[in-house]
Amino acid sequence: MLKRILAAGVGVWMGAVNMPGARAADSALDTVVDRGVLRCGVVLDSPPSGYRNARNEPDGFDVAYCRDMAQVMGVRADIIETPASNRIPALVARRIDVLIASTTGTPQRGLTIAFSRPYMSYATIIITRRGSGISSFADLADKRLGGVAGTTNEALLKKEMAGSWAGRGATYTAYGGDNEAFMALEEGKVDAILQAVGVFKTLQDSGMFPDFVNSGSVPLNDLVSIGVRRDDVQFLNWVNQFIWSQNASGRFAQLYRTYFGNGPLPDLSTDTVAP
């Protein structure tokens, strides 16, 4: 019954925003419905959030989230592979309609695009090779570090290197995507990278990097949001309503356990964010 009520509620919202006189100028919401296709920008080298399955098809939590959104809108989902470093430019250039790509809504990014309420949260850990001697975040102060360009993990490391780690010898190398960062760690080009614990679990399950180990937690609980164009208030309101529906209906819990396994659901409240 709850699912039918929620579906009806989103449907009423859709009907209201499509009434004559209610259409905001140039809203992606109207464009998508008229076109019949929702173009979602998704990072596909970061399992289990986004990846290509054995049939080389887009899959993962973010992919499923996009398909759910398209289904509610009554349109087809088009998954546009979008590298992490190109997420915001792709949205600004209108190559995509919506960004569902595990993107943290920082104030700096908010100057360029608009962010929804959080739809997912990732605990962050340190990944090293076995025998590195690293066991805490403080141990990174004099190490060779790597990460994906333009991410909050990168921002955290650079902040520490310019602050409490200044002069300790730490270096940082940016890579274009998670796969490049994983290979750099595997080949010994860097000593450690930061990554979501769910991604690390997927790496463990795959057996691709048997020497990678979890070497401790990081003071970063990454709440991620859906991105839309900065001036598209109508679409942003609808996206927030959709996220609420996913949570209240139990669909979020279903998707989480499908892609991240059993266990407690992540807390999507802002109270969990480290200062």
TrEMBL record:
Domain of life: Bacteria
Signal peptide region: 1-24
Organism encoding this protein: Gluconacetobacter takamatsuzukensis
Protein name as annotated: Transporter substrate-binding domain-containing protein
Any one of the GO BP annotations: amino acid transport
Keyword Transport: yes
Limits of the Solute-binding protein family 3/N-terminal domain: 37-263
Record's keyword annotation contains Transport: yes
InterPro entries: Bact_solute-bind_prot3, Solute-binding_3/MltF_N
GO cellular component: extracellular region; outer membrane-bounded periplasmic space
Family, as annotated: Belongs to the bacterial solute-binding protein 3 family.
Pfam families given in the database record: SBP_bac_3
Keywords on record: Signal, Transport
